[in-house]
TrEMBL record:
GO terms, molecular function: ATP binding; glutamate-tRNA ligase activity; tRNA binding; zinc ion binding
Domain annotation Aminoacyl-tRNA synthetase class I anticodon-binding: ranges: 344-464
InterPro entries, alphabetized: aa-tRNA-synth_I_cd-bd, aa-tRNA-synth_I_codon-bd_sub2, aa-tRNA-synth_I_CS, aa_tRNA-synth_I_cd-bd_sf, Glu-tRNA-ligase_bac/mito, Glu/Gln-tRNA-synth, Glu/Gln-tRNA-synth_Ib_cat-dom, GluQ/Sye
Catalytic activities: tRNA(Glu) + L-glutamate + ATP = L-glutamyl-tRNA(Glu) + AMP + diphosphate
Record's subcellular location: Cytoplasm
Assigned GO CC terms: cytosol
Protein name per Swiss-Prot or TrEMBL: Glutamate--tRNA ligase
NCBIfam families reported in the protein's UniProt record: gltX_bact (TIGR00464)
UniProt similarity note: Belongs to the class-I aminoacyl-tRNA synthetase family. Glutamate--tRNA ligase type 1 subfamily.
Function, as annotated: Catalyzes the attachment of glutamate to tRNA(Glu) in a two-step reaction: glutamate is first activated by ATP to form Glu-AMP and then transferred to the acceptor end of tRNA(Glu).
Amino acid sequence: MSQQVVTRFAPSPTGYLHIGGARTALFNWLYARGRGGKFLLRIEDTDRARSTPEATQAILDGMTWLGLDHDGEAISQFQRADRHAEVARDLLAQGKAYKCFSTQDEIQAFRDAARAEGRSTLFHSPWRDSTPDQHPDAPYVIRIKAPRDGSTVIRDQVQGDVTIRNDQLDDMVLLRSDGTPVYMLAVAVDDHDMGVTHVIRGDDHLNNAARQMMIYTAMDWPLPVYAHIPLIHGPDGKKLSKRHGALGVEEYQHMGYPAAGMRNYLARLGWSHGDDEFFTDAQAREWFDLSGIGKSPARFDFKKLENLCGQHIAASEDAALLHELVGFLAATDQPALSDDKIILLEQGMYCLKERAKTFPELIDKAEFILTSRPVVPDEKAAALLDSVSRGILKELTPQLQNASWSREDLEAIAMQFAEDNSIKFGKLAGPLRAALAGRTATPSVFDMMLVLGRGETIARLTDAACENV
């Protein structure tokens, strides 16, 4: 029986979930979920100055919005410091690590001399092969005994085989002189203890893999499968930064992008499945594989993001879309919707979601639902409600009053009215839009009538027709 796949996302809580981190989390989530495996979350909160409960919550909120659920409780790396130290002492007891009493000044002097002589500045501790009777009563760090000969090969599923000569690896510190574990040790121990089978992370961690593998090898632990994914660049080909726009996932939520569209776009950043651009979550879980990840950095493209988000809004179930719209309003501190507006929105979602790329665009199209009588037209709409237009509305309204309120009947009455009065339907549609929505850009006037219903439609037309000029 094959081993269950276990992946992990291990962010440092620095205030928000970065867009690059979100993609890493998504890749890990897709890989595990598509194989019936586990997706775990570890908060790497050993930097106590920067790790706050608020920063951790921001990461959790970002993952919740993206729909990336993790298995079990989130693990705090800081709280496992005793276990990390235990492994360092175990390696010391096995003779695979040693106590190093070299001071910072001595290490600096070694490096200065090496630089002056043109030698490698990689520090070789004089304490590597010392015996306990030679040890002074002084502070020390615990260093691992790095292999001196041969090479270390990282068999990476994205980068291919990456070979590092062992004489390039130093005897890495495992425990500092105050007894606290270093990051490299903590990561290796946590990944092993959590049963992580696949380490999928940014390629800025590639060199770390060789150092973490030293710990695995020394402890006789099975190595995980490594997959180091290229970073995300801006449209100009430079590493994604604030100058390119939003970096935090919550900023995209606040801009009104739907989570499904965001997941789809992030999945396509650096991974591909043939020529498929638009796909569902189910397809992403089924298709995602490490072999589809490219070696080159992906470029973030807002136009592609918007295009995909528009497709996801159009393809969404109306109730699910409404639920996310309500969440968007809450996240952006906008007033909550009344129950009657929510009912009308769900009824009208079919005509709102076409060609809307974001929730603000969808809300803009829904203005005819969200506004209340008396409808106050904006400047452009008010210009369409001149005395002639009001007269037209006054004549048309009684005819609509007796309609069966089906689209066919409403269209037939409006078209017949236009013909009888020798006007083009466009001449009639403008004042109708102004009366029903107070806007010039709206869904179809017949869609608005159907969603608003007979009573509200007639009332709004009557208001507009009777307005004092």
